[in-house]
Design goal:
Elements (H helix, E strand, L loop, with lengths): L2 E6 L2 H12 L7 E5 L14 H31 L8 H25 L7 H12 L3 E6 L8 H4 L6 E4 L2
Antiparallel strand pairs: 1-3, 1-4, 2-3
Helix pairs in contact: 2-3
């Protein structure tokens, strides 16, 4: 998948390009308009690494927390340790499971930092353009499909920035 962001001066150019790209025989994976009267810059995941980090952290927490709980219970049962003897046999297992759950949640926060930030300079430039009042069109091609570079140049954009 290739992602490109087209920077446009006029809203009419944005509408024209978006309509033209939507009418293609091979559809694109995503077309998102960003700017005044459109989607705000901070709500587009491709342009906001923090949104990607939050999504990754929630996904990882969804999987790691339950597995951590069951791993904690299993470890407590297998080793037959009485680390928390005051809680009894079942309480000891439950506390072990809760500690495993916490370890899973901590792992999800560690995975959150794994988001690639190689496009940071380009994203900063795009944010500045958006704050200056320009419109952005985020174009994502489908897997195995080439980016329609000639069509993106059709309305003479101010810039075309390739993100990946």
């Amino acid at each position: 998948m290739a992602v490109a962001v087209v920077v446009l001066d006029h809203h009419q150019d944005l509408c024209t390009l978006r309509h033209h790209l939507a009418q293609r025989s091979t559809p694109l994976a995503r077309l998102q308009s960003v700017g005044p009267g459109e989607i705000p810059f901070d709500q587009v995941e491709v342009l906001n690494p923090q949104l990607r980090q939050q999504r990754l952290q929630r996904t990882m927490a969804f999987w790691l927390a339950p597995f951590g709980f069951f791993a904690g219970v299993t470890f407590t049962v297998m080793t037959n340790l009485d680390t928390f003897a005051f809680a009894g046999a079942w309480g000891n297992r439950l506390i072990g499971g809760l500690l495993g759950l916490v370890a899973g949640l901590l792992g999800s926060f560690a995975a959150r930092s794994d988001v690639d930030s190689s496009n940071e300079d380009r994203l900063r430039q795009l944010r500045n353009r958006s704050e200056e009042g320009f419109w952005l069109l985020v174009v994502e091609s489908a897997s195995g499909q080439d980016m329609p570079w000639k069509e993106l140049q059709r309305v003479r954009p101010q810039a075309v920035v390739a993100l990946s």
